[in-house]
Design a protein that fits this description.
This protein is mostly helical. It has eight helices and four strands; from the N terminus they run βββαααααβααα. The protein is globular and about 55 Å long.
Length: 261
């Protein structure tokens, strides 16, 4: 049996003069780079034009970062950021929303499909979700290194005491739970694509991925601490409310894909 983990990791990995390399930023970079090479491999497998992977990397990076930042400002601090709009640009102070990032990716891929692939919106996501799953796992690991976005107190033997955040009792390391479901979603999507060839049933891989990620996220929110004070009196918090449309979309895509011959 494990005992509680005393977690007191410095979020700064190392310093080079005035330059500081943070775990969180490093994990974002690793997620994007590995995700890019995953897409390169898939596009080569399907004999797509060589520049498609380069272009999707640019669209993804812009959509994810802008969407994640604006999502946080709109969903978790609308009043504050409307009163202080300049602070929206202060991304180095923290504040990124995974749901906002997902919406940003949806918008970015609309334009990517329109101007680059022209093979269909769902066609892109049936391939992109594997890179998203890996990148999501990296980002949640970065949250762990920052001692942020964790759960409430727990008696379970794998609880973490987040010392840098002032905690003195073990809490659910929900960052690791989220790393796990991202990797599970990645493994399932990869099996469906590389082993079973189910990308031919358009929307089936995407729908399965959405249900694994967002249904699990919905359930985990019951043991996570609220990110903002206004969520305290809500029956469902903001993360759960924003997850519901993605779960519904996933169910719809699976039903539609299975009905189509």
């Amino acid at each position: 049996m494990l005992s509680a983990v005393v977690w007191n990791v410095d979020p700064i990995l190392f310093k080079l003069g005035p330059v500081q390399v943070h775990w969180y930023g490093l994990m974002w970079a690793v997620g994007f780079l590995v995700g890019y090479y995953m897409l390169v491999r898939m596009f080569k497998h399907e004999k797509c034009p060589d520049d498609w992977a380069d272009k999707i990397f640019i669209y993804m990076a812009i959509g994810t970062i802008i969407g994640a930042r604006l999502g946080h400002c709109l969903f978790y601090g609308f009043g504050h950021y409307m009163a202080n709009p300049v602070e929206i640009l202060k991304i180095w102070e923290g504040g990124l929303s995974s749901h906002g990032g997902a919406i940003g990716i949806l918008i970015a891929m609309y334009f990517y499909n329109k101007h680059v692939t022209k093979k269909g919106y769902i066609w892109i996501f049936d391939r992109l979700v594997m890179a998203i799953g890996f990148c999501g796992a990296c980002i949640r690991f970065g949250n762990l290194m920052n001692s942020e976005i964790y759960g409430g107190p727990t008696d379970l033997p794998w609880g973490f005491i987040f010392v840098r955040d002032g905690q003195t009792v073990p809490c659910h390391p929900t960052q690791l739970y989220e790393v796990t479901y991202c990797l599970v979603a990645l493994a399932v999507a990869s099996y469906m694509y590389w082993v079973k060839g189910l990308q031919e049933k358009r929307g089936l891989i995407l729908g399965t991925f959405l249900i694994i990620v967002f249904l699990t996220r919905f359930l985990l929110e019951f043991i996570k601490n609220d990110q903002e004070a206004f969520e305290a009196d809500m029956a469902l918090n903001m993360g759960q409310i924003l997850s519901i449309p993605f779960v519904i979309w996933g169910v719809y895509l699976i039903i539609k894909a299975l009905r189509n011959k």
